[in-house]
Request: fold
Amino acid sequence: MPSPTLRIIPLGGLGEVGKNMTVYETEGGCIVIDAGIAFPRDEHLGVDLILPDMAYLRNRDDILAVVITHGHEDHVGGLPYLLREVSVKEVWATRLTLGLLKSKLDEHGLLRAAELREAKPGVPVQIGPFKLDFIRVAHSIPDSVAIVVETAAGRVLHTGDYKIDHTPVDGQGTDVGALAALGNKGVDLLLGDSTNAERPGYTGSERLVGEAFRNIIPTREGRILVASFASNLHRMQQAIDIAVEVGRKVAVVGRSMRKNLNIATSLGYLEVPAGTIIKPADIDRYDPDQVLILCTGSQGEPMSALTRIAYDDHSTVRIERGDTVIISAKPVPGNELRVHDSINRLARAGAEVLHQDIADVHVSGHACQEELRMMLALTRPKAVMPIHGEFRMLTAHARLARDAGVPDDQIIIGDNGTVVELSASGVRVIGEVETGMTFVDGLGVGDIGDVALRDRRHLSEDGVVIIVATLSLRSALSPPDPELIARGFAGDELMLEEMRHKAATILQECLADGIDEIKLLQEHLHDGVGQLVYDRSRRRPMILPVVIEV
Reply:
């Protein structure tokens, strides 16, 4: 009889930062750990979100549960889209994560799509052939956990995002004792967070940001804006505490941040004294030195609160000279230019902008090298598979595992879609499944292909020229000259006139040659005018001929 096996298939989160999703499958069913999103880069024009390709999970009836490590969007933001695509019996998450999840699923009309179950650290649960246990870890959002996955094939530790913070804001640090006890029981495979695997030393405690706030906020006379991720409750709590101490009211600007604050307060994860929070519309009723504003937009997102404030496009908040803006987050790779643009605009408006390059206003939520070494020493895994990071981060984590004594053939550096098998003989790569990314564009999911993105890049670079030609096949008169409508095209009036003349000439020549089929006329106009523009300007705007027969 063959020995039992467990297959681990990452669908997202390897070779990239974001859209974390990993499938665990064995005889009797499968579970999915995390269902995250990634944010679009500049080349993804018009794309709102990026999801993992979920094709591997479609049309399956053996998905027993989705298990969430913590409430960040790169781990939970794709859950509504997953629940639309596949049938899932249960969703497991810790108390705060469940609270955030319920709100998200309610917005999508999916509260009844799966049974929501609370995961509690130290309380094992049996889900089909999987025995799961949860170990509390410190991260930049409360109620984060590592997940122990135990089957007949062996025991796996999936760390989620973590760091070893000995002085956490909420007193809930990484449970080092539970990790050591797990190491004594034996870990066959460790899937570990690799985000900071290239960075030496230790990640700073979240309290360092609180100390920086304590040094900055009392010394400022203007309004203070603190921008962070909407889910960074520890950051929000520390800013609120110091605002209360110095007598400032707090306005929360940004829908996601207001929602998270309300959920966390109602569940007891945030403590906000009565009378502290004011409505954004009431900000101007207070002197500048009486207000602190918490807002979203630390990543330069186009429609976020801070970006709109920077562009003087916000309905209630205006930057005035003497204001201080604290950007309490690190730009996600790909967002640097947007963040720098917001900083420049805020500075131009008269604000002093403090960010992690010039002040200690941010610490990472991810373990650096010494903490990764500690995790390896505590759990003593027989095999290691680095996850959660770009390829260079995965290889840096692999080197640490090698230094810790893990054999080379038991260190797996995979890609999204790599199928890893765990059995009594260890781990090995046995194949791959097709995977990739799915674009979300407004209400459309997965319907944006390479052609659409190419067209969007084309429009953004060279613009569009619309040629409107009217002709009557029943009339012996020559057709009127076509009209030209140009948007985003850099040509001057002389070139536009030459293009009109060219379009009229092409139309007359085609009709003289007996070419009157609309499709053919459009092709001739497209090719002829396009060639003229390229010859004159070396640009290729999108040419859209419209032929109207009357």
